[in-house]
Amino acid sequence: MLNCVLCLPARELSGASPVSILAGRGNGASFEGRQTVSDYRIHTIDTAPEAAKPSLEQLHKSIGMIPNLAAAMAESPELLRGFLSARDIFYRGTFTAGEIQVLALTNAFENRCHYCMALHSAFALKSGVPEETVRALRAGQSPPEPRLKALSDFSRRMVRERGHVRREDFAAFHAAGYTNAQALEVVLGVAVSILPNFAHHITDCPVDEVFAGHIWAERFAETTS
Q1: 27: pLDDT confidence band, cut at 50, 70 and 90?
Q2: Domains and CATH numbers, the chain
Q3: I want to staple 10 with a disulfide (CB 3.0 to 4.6 A). Which of 6, 161, 204, 210 is the partner?
């Protein structure tokens, strides 16, 4: 069973106010059963490959919707099943709901996933992450909270350097109260992010209407080195 705290249905996400709306590509419309610009179908349960239907049915039952990216990922039942299984494990780990969203936004920014930046901006706000923190993450900056800064910086370094974190990165991570085990849990978080981030690069599906208020565009983001 998927953790539903971070995967809220459209009716529950409607209360999440947009933050720092950065004009981006796409109009946020949902196009169920139609083709993306790169010829990947946004599947419904009816049009999905037979082996992907149980995953989509489970997802719809758990969160009340099938996000466009999951619908596009359904073209590969193995990818969708692997992603949902890994995400379920990660979401049931030791990080809080807010920390998971901080990691997801950090990784999506580094991987330049427009879709995931929009989706996780909405989830972050609904999980109680402050608007100021979400704004910073959408700009590629560290959160203002010292603990979240250490977490985000550690994951950012891991993504940028392909896992080669420095001694000082570990020191800051530990100083914030995180453990060696949680450093490895960040690795899991990076892996969980890579699957949808990279899948969106290939499928280029549109952002769902429910997340359209959080559209993000790389060209407007002010990055930090």
Answers
A1: very low
A2: 25-220 (1.20.1290.10)
A3: 210
